[in-house]
Amino acid sequence: MPGSDGKRRRIGFWYRLAAFLLKPPLVLLFKRDWRGMEHIPQDGGFITVVNHNSYLDPLSYAHFQYNTGRVPRFLAKVGLFKGGFVGAAMRGTGQIPVYRESADAVGAFRAAVEAIEKGECVAFYPEGTLTRDPKMWPMTGKTGAARVALMTRAPVIPVAQWGANLAMPPYAKEKKLRLFPRKTLTVQAGPPLDLSAFYDREPTAEVLREVTDVMMDAVTEQLAVIRGEAVPAERYDMRKAAVRRREQRATPEHPPEAREVDAEHQPAGQPPAAAEAAEGEKNA
After folding, report:
1. What gap in Å lies between CA 156 and CA 121, rounded to an integer?
2. If we measure between CA atoms, which residue out of 97, 34, 60 comes closest to residue 177?
3. What is the mean pLDDT of the chain?
4. What are the phi and psi torsion angles at 47 (to 5°)?
5. Predicted TM-score (pTM) of this structure
6. Scanning 64, 130, 158, 209, which has its CA 20 to 30 A from the CA of 140?
7. Phospholipid/glycerol acyltransferase domain spans which residues (predicted)?
8. Distance set, CA 112 to CA 108, 118, 180, 230, 281 (Å)
């Protein structure tokens, strides 16, 4: 299997500098509950698929992953690489720029495939954006992680996290940290997924969707353990939700109270439906 020859990325200067700057405030301000570190491969390339419910949770997950000795490479918007200290840190830590305007889906993830084949960890946020699910469960995922998983056949580790969203809720009207009482950042990694049934199938859109659903199911199951709740019967689909709201607005006889109920079930500070629809189309 690619990347299984004992190779692993060295942590390097920039990652150590980031850890030096960020770990002390994280340790001071938050409690930690790290689970499932034994599922993180000790060598060879692998993929992690992670839920996204706060602008703060990349730091929570990176802290967890750094403590395993296997640093992650994130896929990030190309604009973050352009200049200044942040750009230098993104380049120095080996993060992977994503060109959203590219029509070549395989080419957009070529760097991720190369990194895995070199024995590195590549972290995916399959949802493509912060969850819009009213109860903060993972939404439907994009198929990029599935495509890379089938190309590399590398281990795929589902990772769920909870707690960063309590300190910095997504879409809150006031983007202020809620540090007190002190929050616990919980990160839980599950066992590698068995995707062998898909390896000999042509990676059609249908197959990629099936693999993505397997990934999102596994992440959701890990999050259910953290939260001590049952897995939702249906996964929130941002594009379908936007379509439903457009249909409601276009139907004069649609009961006003139904529209009000729909609005009540949006996260605090949720963008209007038009913005959500545009976000769904952009991340498709």
Report:
1. 10
2. 60
3. 82
4. -120, 140
5. 0.81
6. 64
7. 46-164
8. 9, 10, 38, 33, 23
